[in-house]
Amino acid sequence: MEQTQVVLEVQNLVKRFDGLVAVDNLNFKVKKGRIHALIGPNGAGKTTTVNMITGDNPQTEGEVLFYGKSISKMPIYERASLGIGRTFQNIKLFSTMTVMENLLIGGQGKTTQNLLKYLANFKLAQREERQLREKAEEILNFIGMYKYKDEQVSNLAYGRQKMTELGRTLMGDPKLILLDEPAAGLNPSERKEFIDIIQKVFENNVDMFLIEHNMDVVMNLSHDITVLNFGCKIAEGDPKSILENEEVISAYLGEGYRKQMKKEAGQDA
Ligand SMILES: Nc1ncnc2c1ncn2[C@@H]1O[C@H](COP(=O)(O)OP(=O)(O)O)[C@@H](O)[C@H]1O
Ligand SMILES: [Mg+2]
Questions:
Q1: Which residues are near ligand 2, the ion (C-beta closer than 5 Å)?
Q2: Does the beta carbon of 160 lie inside 6 Å of ligand 1?
Q3: Cα separation of 230 and 218, whole Å?
Q4: Packing angle of the helix pair 122-142, 158-170 (nearest 10 deg)
Q5: Which residues have CB under 8 Å from 76's CB, separation 6+?
Q6: CA nearest to 99, candidates 56, 31, 44, 162
Q7: Can you list the residues of the chain whose pLDDT is less than 50?
Q8: Where are the domains of the chain?
Q9: Contact in structure between 33 and 4 (CB atoms under 8 Å)
Q10: pLDDT for residue 252
Q11: Does ligand 1 lie within 6 Å of residue 158's CB atom?
Q12: Which of 38, 52, 79, 130 is most buried by a 10 A CB count?
């Protein structure tokens, strides 16, 4: 039988902040062609895990492997150039700039230009900028944001800002995108739109690692789920097995959730 390719693997990952163990000996694998969700209560260590994967805040101990190769000691930009993209729990955009400008900044690492080359070869720089702009337009079309391209980010609804951030991430040609609570703060229609777009990006061969509280989103999108509590993995499996897992219910989902599930399934709670 053919093995599913492993996109991302974390091995014995530990993060300590002074006395606090935020992530405690974490292991999991993200497989190709599967949307992998990381869930758990606030403070469980989810964002810290993403920061160790991207290099934003490296591990205290352990390894991060991307397509089988250790990246744990690489700086952020090097990991990004290998194909690791992310969005942030709290949007990080230049809010006084336009949507287009934010995407162009996201694509900047991709041009060969530095200032010296730029001065030496103005024509080449112009061509690269034109190509970057065309790419940004294509991406904005793809995510349904083209008509907002010249809007200042601060004037956009929150859902549009989140979408802009996804667009900027796509400018880096990611193979894997780490989404840190993409649906938080979105209204139901924005949330549905976001799910559709994530699905569409995924179908274009970009793997997804998703941190999310909204169980609707998690259940709709993910194939595999890892559950964290106090920095430790307490469960792992497909959505159905996670929903039925006693430890997950008591640590995270709560009894109310179990009752709701039973009600929906037509059983007495
Ligand atoms: N930079 C930091 N310095 C000190 N403690 C931190 C830092 N970042 C996160 N923590 C702590 O680590 C734990 C895990 O945080 P975090 O990864 O943000 O959780 P989650 O994303 O699951 O809500 C929390 O107790 C948090 O207070
Ligand atoms: Mg977080």
A1: 46-47, 89
A2: no
A3: 20
A4: 130
A5: 54, 55, 56
A6: 162
A7: 269
A8: 1-83+174-269, 95-171
A9: yes
A10: 85
A11: no
A12: 38
Single-letter amino acid code for the residue at 234: I
- Residue 33 carries which side chain, given as an amino acid letter? G
Q: Please tell me the distance from the alpha carbon of residue 123 to that of residue 129, in angstroms, as a whole number.
A: 10
Pocket flag, ligand 1, residue 46 (CB < 6 Å): yes
- Phi and psi at 68, nearest 5°, equal 85, -5
At residue 106, the pLDDT reads: 73
Give 16 Cα–ligand 2 centroid separation in angstroms: 16
User: What pLDDT shows up at residue 127?
Assistant: 82
Cα 49 to middle of ligand 1, angstroms: 9
Q: What CA–CA distance (Å, rounded) separates 6 from 65?
A: 9
Assigned CATH class of 1-83+174-269? alpha beta
Which pLDDT score is estimated for 74?
96
Of 188, 164, 198, 1, the closest CA to residue 91 belongs to: 164
pLDDT at 269: 42
Atom 27 (ligand 1) nearest CA: 43
pLDDT digits (tens, 9 = 90+) for 73-104: 999 999 999 999 999 888 888 899 999 999 99
Tell me the pLDDT tens digit for each residue of 34-65. 999 999 999 999 999 999 999 999 999 999 99
Relative to the CA of 42, which ligand 1 atom is closest?
A: 23
The confidence score (pLDDT) of residue 2 equals 57
Task: Write down the pLDDT at residue 4.
Answer: 81
Long-range pairs for 19-25: beta carbons < 8 A, 24 or more residues apart: 21/231, 22/48, 22/231, 23/48, 23/49, 23/52, 23/59, 23/228, 23/231, 24/230, 24/231, 24/232, 25/62, 25/232
CB atoms within 10 A of CB 103: 27
Nearest to 38 by CA among 168, 212, 199: 212
